[in-house]
Design brief:
Stig-like
């Protein structure tokens, strides 16, 4: 039983996500290979955060990982807030 035939299988407990991409259950909000939509891949150094590919090495809203915000006035460098 695959999700392309039975989409509700992706909503079962223990399944990686509620979305079906190429016969696999994924979460398009967090999957780096299917970010925001099936087949949209994030580049090296990026992570899928909320369905968008972001550079977690320099994004102050996602510094070092999704939703890891730097304090107001600080910056993100090499995945760390106010590094230097």
């Amino acid at each position: 039983m695959t999700c392309d035939n039975v989409p509700r299988v992706c909503r079962a407990n223990g399944i990686p996500g509620p979305d079906c991409c190429k016969k696999q259950c994924v979460n398009v909000m967090t999957d780096n290979q299917n970010c925001g939509q099936c087949g949209k891949k994030c580049r090296f150094g990026q992570a899928c955060c909320g369905g968008s590919c972001v550079n977690v090495m320099y994004d102050p809203k996602n510094c070092g990982g999704c939703n890891k915000r730097c304090k107001k006035g600080s910056f993100c460098q090499y995945g760390m807030c106010s590094y230097a």
